Amino acid sequence: MSSDLLHLIDSWTSLTVLVIGDAILDSYLNGSTDRLCREAPAPVVAIQQQLDVPGGAANTATNLASLGGRVVFLSVIGTDTEGDRLRQALEQRGVSSSYLISSPQRKTLAKQRVLAGSQILVRLDQGSTEDVSADLEQQMIARLAEQFPQCDAVIISDYGYGILTPRIMHTLQGLQSQFPRTLVIDSRHLHTYQHLSATAVKPNYDEAIYLLDLPKQQHDRAEQIEPYGDQLLKLTGAAIVAVTLDTEGAIVFEQGSSPLRTYAHPAPHNQTSGAGDTFISALTLALASGASTTTASSLASTATAIVVKQPGTSACRAEELRQSIIDARSPDKLILDQSDLATYVQQYRAANRRIVFTNGCFDILHPGHVTYLSQAKVLGDVLIIGVNSDESVRQLKGEGRPVNPLSDRLTMLSALSCVDHVIPFSDRTPHNLIRIICPHTYVKGGDYTRDTLPEASLVEELGGTVRIVPYVDNRSTTRLIHQIRALQH
Question: What CATH number belongs to 2-328?
Answer without folding.
Answer: 3.40.1190.20
